[in-house]
C-alpha cells in the first residue's frame, strides 16, 4: 500500500498548510499510520477523509457538525480501522491503544455472539424438528384411533340397522302368514258349517244312503 508524507498530502489537497492538517487530525481525532521512524504515512483513505473535511470547511461547517458527519461516515470509520491495523503497537499512544483494544474486543464479542447465536439457532432448529416429528406422530396415532372408533360406530350402526330391518321384515311376514292362516281357517270353518247345515236339510234316508 503506497504511503504519502504530510507534505505530499498537503500538495494533493490544493496546497493546504501542513499545520492545518495536523490541527484537523487533533480536532477530529484522526488516527494516522506511522512508519518505523515514527513519521506520518498517509494512505488514500486518510487523504479522502481529509479532502471531505476540507470540502465541509469550505462550505462553512463547524467542528461539531463535521464531527457528527464523520461519526456516521463509513469511509471515516473504515479509515480509522485501517489506520489502527497499520500502526505498530509500540507507536500507539494510550488513547490509540485503548481504541484498538476496544475494537478488537468488540470484534471478538461480535464473532462470539454470532457463534453463540448460530449454535442456539441450530439447537432450536433440531429441537423444533424433533417436537414437530413427535407431534405429527401423536396426531397420526390420535387420528388413527378416532378413525377406528368412527369405523366401529359405523359398522355397529349399519349392523343394528340391518338387524332392525330384518326383524321388521320377519315380523311383517309372520303377521302376513298369520293373517293368511286365520283367513284360510275362517273359510274352512265356514265351509264345514255350511256343509253341516246342508246335511241337516236333507231327508234322513237320503242322508243315510248318500
From TrEMBL:
Keywords: Coiled coil, DNA-binding. GO terms for molecular function: DNA binding; DNA-binding transcription factor activity. Residues 3-72 form the HTH merR-type domain. PROSITE patterns: HTH_MERR_2 (PS50937). The keyword Phosphoprotein does not apply. It holds the Pfam family MerR_1. Residues 140-187 form a coiled coil. It comes from the Bacteria. This is MerR family transcriptional regulator. It comes from Senegalia massiliensis. The lineage of its organism: Bacteria, Bacillati, Bacillota, Clostridia, Eubacteriales.
Amino acid at each position: 500500500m503506497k504511503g504519502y508524507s504530510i507534505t505530499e498530502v498537503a500538495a494533493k489537497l490544493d496546497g493546504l498548510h501542513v499545520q492545518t492538517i495536523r490541527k484537523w487530525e487533533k480536532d477530529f481525532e484522526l488516527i494516522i499510520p506511522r512508519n518505523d521512524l515514527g513519521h506520518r504515512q498517509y494512505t488514500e483513505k486518510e487523504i479522502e477523509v481529509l479532502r471531505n473535511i476540507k470540502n465541509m470547511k469550505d462550505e462553512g461547517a463547524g467542528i461539531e457538525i463535521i464531527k457528527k458527519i464523520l461519526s456516521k461516515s463509513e469511509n471515516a470509520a473504515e479509515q480509522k480501522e485501517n489506520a489502527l491495523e497499520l500502526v505498530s503497537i509500540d507507536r500507539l499512544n494510550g488513547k490509540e491503544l485503548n481504541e484498538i483494544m476496544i475494537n478488537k474486543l468488540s470484534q471478538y464479542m461480535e464473532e462470539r455472539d454470532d457463534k453463540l447465536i448460530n449454535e442456539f439457532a441450530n439447537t432450536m432448529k433440531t429441537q423444533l424438528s424433533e417436537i414437530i416429528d413427535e407431534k405429527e406422530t401423536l396426531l397420526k396415532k390420535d387420528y388413527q384411533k378416532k378413525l377406528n372408533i368412527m369405523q366401529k360406530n359405523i359398522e355397529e350402526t349399519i349392523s343394528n340397522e340391518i338387524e332392525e330391518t330384518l326383524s321388521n321384515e320377519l315380523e311383517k311376514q309372520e303377521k302376513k302368514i298369520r293373517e293368511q292362516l286365520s283367513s284360510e281357517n275362517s273359510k274352512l270353518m265356514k265351509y264345514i258349517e255350511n256343509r253341516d247345515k246342508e246335511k241337516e236339510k236333507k231327508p234322513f234316508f237320503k242322508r243315510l244312503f248318500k
